[in-house]
Amino acid sequence: MSLAYPLHSSSAQHAVDTCADAIERLGVKMAFAKDEEIYAQDEEADLIYRVVSGVVRTSRLMSDGRRQVGDFYYPGDIFGLEPGDEHRYSAEALTDCVVQVLKQSALRTQADEEALARVVWEATTRELERAHEHVMLLGRKSAFEKVASFLSDITRRGKGRSGDLPMSRQDIADYLGLTIETVSRTISKLQNQAIIEFEGCRHFKICNDAALARLAE
Question: Is residue 113 assigned to a domain?
């Protein structure tokens, strides 16, 4: 989710950091309003993106009309890298956000082809690792475990015991492969069991770290 999953390779992290540094120096900052499209599904993938502020959501419209949310990207996250020539998902501003944008051709002028290929390949590998984690989440966990994992990842980003949900319950449902009713019911159960506590509809805190961790694992 970008929710960012841990990297399994220090070289992959170095590649992402290198790419992020290049985007920081050379990229153009663009502001997007909440729900504004950043790029479209099946659009040519010739740009690299980095979130400066706000949150970005990627999603794909299926042939039967259903929507699959791919990931959520937070400040510092790179997105838009693809193994092919087109974007498999669209990207929208989940909140008002600022995104740095850089053409891959501009990156090539700052590095030799071999170095660029390594950066793009390893950053793409990171995306594939995240996609793999998402598949495992969808296929191997119960609804209760899926929601617990999602909330646990949100708090891990903040490195604390609380978190904010800029996404809607429908976004969460479409990310986890659940119905919005199931998500709402599961969150209510977690509150009733004193595992989490919501302060309003967006902000929550963990009341029982061990219980949430057991469910998430």
Answer: yes
